[in-house]
Amino acid sequence: MKIMLGILLSFTLLQGCQSQSDFDLAKIILNQDKVSDIIPKDIKLATYDNGVTNGDNKYASTGSDKILIFNQINLSGENPKANYENKAVVYFNIQDSIITRYQLDISVTKQSEELLKTLKEKLGNPNYTGFSSEKDKMDNLPSEFIWEDIENNILYHLSYSKQHYGIDANLNVLPIMKTYPALPGITYWESFMHYREKSDNTNYTYQDFLKERLENDPDNIQNKLSK
Q1: Domain tally for the chain?
Q2: Distance CA 116, CA 55 (A)
Q3: Is the CB of residue 60 less than 8 Å from the CB of residue 35?
Q4: Does 117 map to a domain?
Q5: Which end of the chain, N or C, is more open, meaning fewer C-beta atoms within 10 Å of its C-beta?
Q6: Within a domain: residue 1?
Q7: In which domain of life is the source organism classified (predicted)?
């Protein structure tokens, strides 16, 4: 399912006395929770049309420290070297405001490292780890991680890269699907999912898949750049 960015919404902060200490993006139930129900009450949604429509979907973006909380970790902040503020992006349906996915864009090294750490604590070792080059794989410097939470039907995709301003992290949290929006390394994962479905073996892992691929084609660069 291809999700195009269509209508930009921003969160406008208003004063309020209600405590929002229990808000956590990690608690969102995709395809069930509504933006109007889970966004803190002192955050007002203001809608802006950027001229590009996306069917039945909208998205909202904010750098608010009341929203940028994942697994009890506050990820708000700004990197002056990148001239960029950490942001959360929430995608939802127009008709019922049900949240379909969300995204975290982090440009501050400390918060990027904290995000990776808390994902490992929450979900364990990733099901897929990707690398940008063979050298990066030798040096164990991953650029992509995928966690598949089958029990809750959630896929976590993290892009993780070193930029001139520090470490950049981009997390997409979305339902498990047969095809995904364009994300780094996701085609490798989709190939594995297709093969697993055909094999009818729910215990079949990406590592099993990769072992077979390497045996059949050890020189294939796609096979070399993941584990």
Answers
A1: 1
A2: 33
A3: yes
A4: yes
A5: N
A6: no
A7: Bacteria
